Amino acid sequence: MKAFVRWGAILGLVGSSFLAPALTGRLVANALPEQQVVEQLQTIPLFMITNQQGVPLTQTIPNPSDKTKEVQVYTFFVAQQDAQTALTTIKNKNPDIGKQAKISPVSLGNVVKLALESRKQKANVEVNILPSQQQFQAAVAILKQNGQLVDKNGQLVTKDGKPFPGGTPLFYGTDSKTGGLLSVEGVFKDNGQDKKVSIVPFYFDKQALQTDLDQAKKQNPQLATTTKIEVVMLDSLLSTMLSSTDTSVGQFQLVPNRDSIEFIQKQTPAQGSPQAAPGTAPKPTPKPQDPKAK
């Protein structure tokens, strides 16, 4: 829980000192270790439906590559409101299960760990992260405007004609002239001490990024003519963090929705013993098929 609450300081920092362009082209010998990526994502809350003991409610579906076997599907929500809607649906359609169900926060780091461990163990596990439909539609609009997506016979396809797989969008700023990523520098309090950080932020909420950019443009008017918002899907960004040799990926920082952080903070006891980080992802049971992670 403490890791999530720490974002109260980070959210105040983002937007205060945007720089353009950001770090590019500096190579190192190796990509980020999996553990470092997992740790970077520990501050990002997702939400899942669990029973009162915190055990996830999962769905079992036929394995698309082998109908004789099944895949266990773990579903996570970016928006707490969407998780609440899903919980209400469960309570209405299946009261026996619904009366024992609740919303539990889980870190994105633990979700990624679950997906990575499932792949290594060849477990029949699928991880679904469901975005807010409002943010998804905002991302589609940007991708269409940039020419990366087109409508073809009523379906969305990429510019090279492949079906658009969808996913969870993240929004980030770039320098429209150089293509460089926008970074943020500033100082915030960490355990009572000033700590200087430089990050490249990726937002789950387009409007939050726009608000921070508008504020930054007042301090640096040049940003108004050189900055634009672009979109990357979460799975693509995670793949980059796990495989790229560009040192800038070590500064990638996902920015959670403010509503999510406020929800987490309200769940934090004002006093008493510190709690363990919520939502430790369950370990998958090894099975012979490769998982499919989305």
TrEMBL record:
Q: Show the Pfam families listed in the entry.
A: Tic22
Top-level division of the source organism's lineage: Bacteria
One GO BP annotation here? protein transport
Is rRNA-binding one of the keywords UniProt gives this record?
no
For the region Disordered, give the residue spans. Answer: 262-294
Q: Is Signal set as a keyword in this record?
A: yes
Q: Which UniProt keywords apply?
A: Signal
- What positions belong to coiled-coil segments? none
Under InterPro entries, the record lists: Tic22-like (IPR007378)
Query: Quick one: signal sequence residues?
Result: 1-22
Which protein is depicted? Tic22 family protein
The organism named in the record is: Cyanothece sp. (strain PCC 7425 / ATCC 29141)
